[in-house]
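S2.1 Query sequence (NAD(P)-dependent oxidoreductase)
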Amino acid sequence: MKLVITEPLGISEAQAEALKKEYLPQEIEMIYYNTPPKDEAEKGARAKDAELVMLANMPFKENVLQELTSLKMLSVAFTGIDHVGMDYCRAHNILVSNCSGYANEAVSELAIGLAIGLYRKILSADRAVREGKTRTGLLGIELSGKKFGVVGGGAIGKKTMALARAFGCDVYYYNRHKTQIEGAAYVSLDELMRISDIISLHVPLTADTKGLIGREEIGKMKKTAILINTARGAVVDSKALADALHEKRIAGAGIDVFEGEPPIAGDHPLLHAPNVILAPHVGFATQEAMEKRAVIAFRNVAAYLSGKPQNVM
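Output structure tokens follow.
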């Protein structure tokens, strides 16, 4: 049986071999491609004869999947699976497992970091030093005492709430299914948008969440409020957000995700909006998270081979 890792996982080949030795049967043949494929054709060519395929966040849609006639299982080293052709997988009995949980700390810490970056004007402060200026105009804001609103009550949302509490914030949250979360008050999305000083998004991209934060929702925000998105780009109407920033109807935004994977188009509205910190989808990208997700991805393959699949999507 053959396992192909079709793109880099953020670990070395030696680490991948060690994980194979620890979790998989000796007779499994493994090929690890530690460079990204050049194009769609190469994606399919790399995994053509494999029964088992491991990938991270590169798109793996029907046009690629239909070439993989031996494929039985996809171990997706990522939390979201909107980049995978799930309808095709279900129709052709291809089991898909994800690596939910590997980046809880990484993403939640970045969300807080973006908020601090905006509140303390870190980009402007760096620029001031390099341009020989002083701290004039760089009066910052503290997190302590602010109303921190989280959209999404999953693992990353909960971790973000815990960090916000540690900074002395009053924490509020909205989730489609009302749950009890210690130290946080449940409110409607409408109320959360109105009362929060900081709004951090932590929901998956689904039919229900696409465009969840649109022009109407952004219009309810305080003039002094900031929006943080480390979830999925399409959850937010980027044009509506950029308009609000240009018109000073909100104070700022920290964005790590876009409608597609970076690089983004030069005419993307947020590239030209004021008081916004942009990052090229780095929320999950820490050394620790890469190691955690690789372990989960290999364990997913081992569980499938044992007849007890886990993290099934």
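The mean pLDDT is 96. DSSP finds eleven helices and twelve strands in the chain.
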